[in-house]
Amino acid sequence: MERPGGRSCSGPGPTPTHAAPASVSLAQLLQLVQQGRELPGVEKRHIAATHGEPTASRLPPRPKPWEAAGSAEAPAPPP
Amino acid sequence: MSGARGGAVRTLRVPGRHGYAAEFSPYLPGRLACAAAQHYGIAGCGTLLILDQNESGLRLFRSFDWNDGLFDVTWSENNEHVLVTCSGDGSLQLWDTAKAAGPLQVYKEHTQEVYSVDWSQTRGEQLVVSGSWDQTVKLWDPTVGKSLCTFRGHESVIYSTIWSPHIPGCFASASGDQTLRIWDVKSTGVRIVVPAHQAEILSCDWCKYNENLLVTGAVDCSLRGWDLRNVRQPVFELLGHTYAVRRVKFSPSHASVLATCSYDFTVRFWNFSKPDPLLETVEHHTEFTCGLDLSLQSPTQVADCAWDETIKIYDPVCLTMPA
């Protein structure tokens, strides 16, 4: 299964105030999720778009290595 | 052994962040973007990391947080500052590395996690394709807030969406429905369906030197090559990984070489034109290895990232040796 534990579980409650361990193991996390418990140190953000314009580009695009190769013969896979 | 020692591995440790994808800048040699998530992507925020290489190793140039985990990243092909990420909350973000705060734009249409984003590689257009667990692919012009088109057909989650480097407007998708599909932006219906594996397909890529050739990597631990002119059987099969293949990339520099990373923690290099195709196995991670990229400017350089909170750049021995 690609996403163990799934992400449809409801979000955790208020961020805990105790210091979070640097790394919780995946097995420990899955256990917490299955028990419906709060995950330690979940960092909540409220980030939104700035709607700014991108910084102007000053570099020309570079050719890709396969474009520079020009008419190099394409390899055939083994029969 | 003639001259062929690979360079030292350069590592950046990012505590509390699990790497999902790594991409070298197409403009700046030695600049790498990494999409990462807190808590293995299960809960919490995400971070986009921009790394630069110098003589002593890897340096974090800048990082940007997002409200949910980031699962993929793609650089702009027309602006060295710009990149796009995609997130567990179903949105895409447009970032500018020259600005301290971001994102510039957020694109919210997918109704589930977006696992893949790719910026078109052909010169005539600037388009982004996204693949989601909501089973749809969406096409975007980053200067427009709404998607240009939605492609339906997959019957399960989509894990990978990749533009052809040769055929304008053509992209491939890989899915949990066990198919590889080929699409064209000029029509919303799928062009080719390949029942490529009897397992979920987590990754696909196009050969840079043969426009008809793609590869798929699947949960069955195998890789299969597909010639679009005859998709009834694979043109090669590569075995060796002992757990799911998480990502596969054809080399930009070597016509028959490809690289893979896996839940078996390894990165492997293959030459599909050799009778014994496995070139090298790199075992320097201690957790699922999810991100992988090969440098466009340096034919020997590779970047990867894993759930062990590290990002690595290195030159595998097999790429430093002559063919």
TrEMBL record, chain A:
Amino acid composition bias (Low complexity), ranges on this chain: 66-79
Pfam families for the chain: KPWE_dom
Taxonomy, superkingdom: Eukaryota
Segments for region (Disordered): 1-22, 37-79
Boundaries of every Peroxisomal membrane protein PEX14-like KPWE domain copy: 21-67
Protein name (record): Uncharacterized protein C6orf226 homolog
Native species: Callorhinus ursinus
TrEMBL record, chain B:
Location, primary (coarse class): cytoplasm
InterPro entries, A to Z: PEX7 (IPR044536), WD40/YVTN_repeat-like_dom_sf (IPR015943), WD40_PAC1 (IPR020472), WD40_repeat_CS (IPR019775), WD40_repeat_dom_sf (IPR036322), WD40_rpt (IPR001680)
Any one GO cellular component localisation term in the record: peroxisomal matrix
Extent of the WD repeats: 107-150, 151-187, 194-230, 238-280
Keywords annotated in UniProt: Cytoplasm, Peroxisome, Protein transport, Repeat, Transport, WD repeat
Taxonomy, superkingdom: Eukaryota
Compartment(s) where it occurs, according to its Swiss-Prot or TrEMBL record: Cytoplasm, Cytosol; Peroxisome matrix
GO terms of biological process kind: protein import into peroxisome matrix
SMART domains in UniProt: WD40 (SM00320)
Pfam family, one: WD40
Single GO MF annotation: peroxisome matrix targeting signal-2 binding
Family in the record: Belongs to the WD repeat peroxin-7 family.
SUBUNIT field: Interacts with PEX5; interaction only takes place when PEX7 is associated with cargo proteins. Interacts with VWA8.
Purpose of the protein: Receptor required for the peroxisomal import of proteins containing a C-terminal PTS2-type peroxisomal targeting signal. Specifically binds to cargo proteins containing a PTS2 peroxisomal targeting signal in the cytosol. Cargo protein-binding triggers interaction with PEX5 and formation of a ternary complex composed of PEX5 and PEX7 along with PTS2-containing cargo proteins, which is tranlocated into peroxisomes by passing through the PEX13-PEX14 docking complex.
Annotated protein name in UniProt: Peroxisomal targeting signal 2 receptor
Organism per entry: Callorhinus ursinus (Northern fur seal)
Lineage of the organism: Eukaryota, Metazoa, Chordata, Craniata, Vertebrata
